[in-house]
Amino acid sequence: MIISLAAVIVVQAYWITSAWENKEEEFSLAVSQSLKSVSTKVRDLEISDYIGAYEQLIDSIGTPNESNFTDIFLFVDNQDDISSNLTSFYAFGILEEDYNISLSDINSELGNDKVKDYKQVKTTAILSKDKIFNRENRVAKSITKLKSVERMSIFDQEIFRSAYLDYSSTIPVHKRIRTDELKRLLDGEFNARNILTFYEFGIYNNGLATKVKSNEYIENQEGSKYETPIFPQDNGQTPYKLVVTFPDRDQFVFSSILSVVGLSIFLTIFIIIVSTTAIYQIIRQKKVSEMKSDFINNMSHEFKTPIATINLALDAISNPKTQSTKSGLLRYVKMIREENQRMLSQVENVLMISRLEKSSSPIELSEIDIHNAVEDAMRHLDLIVKNHKGKIISCLDAKQTISKGNLNHFTNLMVNLLDNAVKYSKGSPQITISSYNEAKKIFLKISDEGIGMDINTQKQIFEKFFRKQSGNIHNVKGHGLGLSYVKKIIELHDGDIKLTSKIGEGTTFIISVPLL
Questions:
Q1: What is 258-354's CATH number?
Q2: pTM over 0.70
């Protein structure tokens, strides 16, 4: 399970990293395409503006000084209609108009080329067959000339382009494109490709910043940078570069995969939690199973002794010699009763824990004096402590001692705590009980100088069936139910119990119960 979980985490991490890298590549590709498109549009816009001004100049000049019409014919017979003696043909022509004005008169940088305008002419005619001249001699020439017309049509779109590019290279870049125009073109391209994040831009001339830049653009701009040539010449060379930076690129890229990544992380965490819980429950159930086995073994041992004693007593009673003496008979009957009571007490403890767990309010609560319960418990343990040559020191200083609870159960929990202090003491037990009031509560502090507990034992000490293992589980009598019972009774009194312990230095339990 752990290996599978680790593999899932590794795969998810790899997938998220790959998705991030793919989105970055997609973003970079979209930006590069946008910048190339903007560069092309800027160039075309500049040339179209010049051609528009040039055509406006031609219109303002008026009638040309010289016109030259070149005709090209390609005849096509009407083969579909045999009954007709008519044949259709198409005529194409180029009209060249020379205005006899040198471009140098407009701007000396443009050279001596003259202002000319080219127009395409297309006519259609239908002739009778007897008026058709030798077509075969014209077809090859017509095809050749038709191809030149196509070339002229392209030339017509690029008129004076080369001349203008030479001229425009001498114009400062801020006069060729305005900042707001460039921003409008960038916005259009970025929006078309869903690049909806903040950016800054600027145009560089041989590595030096120009006036064409966004308001907040600086040379050491943070973020990812993208650049493309702008205003290229016929040879493809240009000193200008358009540079665009995206300060928030990483956030934008991450936001594009946030929903899927968030779902993936959530599911991964969910799997981790479920798997961890399952592993924890498996380990816990294994420990509980071990503790139950120890409990059964211990109970069997506890029952085995009184059962064996009862059997021996019954055998003795069955002996005629014993039956003949009243004192011997009474002695064995008393022994049977004591051992039977011992077994009943063991069973009652187990049943009491079971009843407490199954019912939300299994005990009756009334007004009790906490000090009375403590003193009663001390009387129960007094002989046992003295038998071990120990002592109980009481410092019951609390002024307010009245609480809502069950006197019998509260006395029993104190007996359990004192009994544990005696059991787990080396040599003569030294037990101190003190009380004090704080925040409308009464606090009881039970300290001993016994063997103490390690951290792991402290975490599990209140669990049912748990007993500290130290070799033979029968070294100390008990079933691992005492402290579980103590905690349950205190919870039913709306109280709390805490402990501090250190190996070799003893243990201290602190109980707090609300006052009336």
A1: 1.10.287.130
A2: no
